[in-house]
UniProtKB/TrEMBL annotation:
Feature: compositional bias, Basic residues: 51-74
Location of the region described as Disordered in the Swiss-Prot/TrEMBL record: 43-82
Entry's transmembrane regions: 6-39
Species whose genome carries this gene: Elysia marginata
Keyword Transmembrane set for record: yes
Keyword field: Membrane, Transmembrane, Transmembrane helix
Name under which the protein is recorded: Uncharacterized protein
Keyword Membrane: yes
Length: 82
């Protein structure tokens, strides 16, 4: 009789420990996924802004280069009057 009670208690303790471990693992996994998603969203936002500034820099460079080229062309053209 005592052996059966001890066996039942051991089984109940083992089941409770297993359930607690599973719950902890699931909670940790969910937290990790949420943190990773949030960090990725923040990084994407930063990438967009840096990409935009790079793009504007490139277009500014192109515009100034075009202006210079046009001025040179105008000066070298025969119709240019000083």
């Amino acid at each position: 009789m005592v052996v059966v009670v001890v066996n039942v208690v051991v089984v109940v303790v083992v089941v409770v420990v297993v359930v607690v471990v599973v719950v902890v693992v699931v909670v940790v996994a969910v937290v990790v996924v949420v943190v990773v998603v949030v960090v990725e969203e923040e990084e994407e936002g930063e990438d967009k802004t840096t990409r935009r500034t790079k793009r504007t820099k490139k277009t500014k460079r192109r515009r100034t280069r075009r202006k210079r080229q046009l001025k040179k062309l105008l000066k070298t053209s025969p119709n240019y009057v000083t």
